[in-house]
Design brief:
about 240 residues; alpha/beta
Length: about 240
């Protein structure tokens, strides 16, 4: 089955998204690397083609331009007739040093537009193609910072991670995961949220994981077997609290 799986990964031109693309290629998927910038996306495709054997191509997905969603859907439908895997990886962390008491509503709206509303709209547009797959998989890239349970513990280990706009947008993503998984109950489609772990990035210099490690949870959820879970929130094989 793996040889014919068509996988769309948003934000695939760098970081964790790039590694998700690479690891899905390694597992025999035909990967569609989604990015908003064509030159950067095609450069990433060229690099991955040198690194991995397998099929990969660029497709324009700009979370700030929903027109690209419909164009991509028509392209995928025409070429493949289905979509087996959607990894909603792209997102933004614009909070900076703002806290809950002073983050501008403008920042909140911009964050939700990209991290939540665009993710929902893209998924809705791709869902008819995913439902044509014999084993559809939707993976929503989230974060442990979205966990209301973990954030509200008196001795929460997340006390330094209080970027309200980002965290709240990912909490909303988790709600979407739960609702969509419930709607698709009884179908072959599985929907889950992924926490990549504390990956070292420019915005998270204290992270202890490399990109290839951060990609593992999303890839595992994308490749779930028929008896795998749906409607969950995971880091690797470990369920996380909502």
């Amino acid at each position: 089955m793996n040889e014919s799986r068509i996988a769309l990964v948003t934000g695939g031109n760098k970081g964790i998204g790039y590694e998700i693309c690479r690891q899905l290629m390694h597992r025999g998927c035909h990967v569609l690397l989604g990015a908003r910038n064509r030159s950067e996306g095609e450069a990433a495709v060229a690099a991955l083609t040198k690194e991995e054997k397998g099929d990969i191509g660029f497709i324009t997905i700009d979370l700030n331009d929903p027109r690209t969603f419909s164009i991509a859907q028509a392209d995928i439908s025409g070429r493949f007739g289905k979509l087996d895997i959607l990894v909603n990886n792209a997102g933004v962390v614009p909070d900076g040093d703002y806290k809950v008491y002073d983050v501008p509503v403008r920042i909140l709206k911009e964050t939700f537009d990209t991290n939540f509303f665009a993710l929902v709209e893209l998924t809705q547009i791709m869902l008819p193609l995913i439902r044509k797959s014999p084993a559809g998989r939707i993976v929503n890239q989230s974060s442990i910072l979205a966990s209301l349970t973990a954030q509200s513990l008196p001795d929460s280990p997340l006390k330094q991670g209080k970027s309200f706009a980002y965290n709240a947008s990912k909490t909303a993503v988790n709600a979407f995961t739960v609702h969509l998984a419930d709607f698709l109950k009884g179908t072959p489609v599985k929907v889950n949220s992924a926490h990549p772990g504390s990956v070292r990035t420019a915005m998270n210099p204290g992270g202890n994981l490399e990109d290839f490690e951060g990609a593992r949870t999303a890839v595992a959820l994308a490749m779930l077997p028929e008896n795998g879970p749906s409607g969950g929130f995971f880091y690797l094989d470990t369920p996380l609290p909502w």
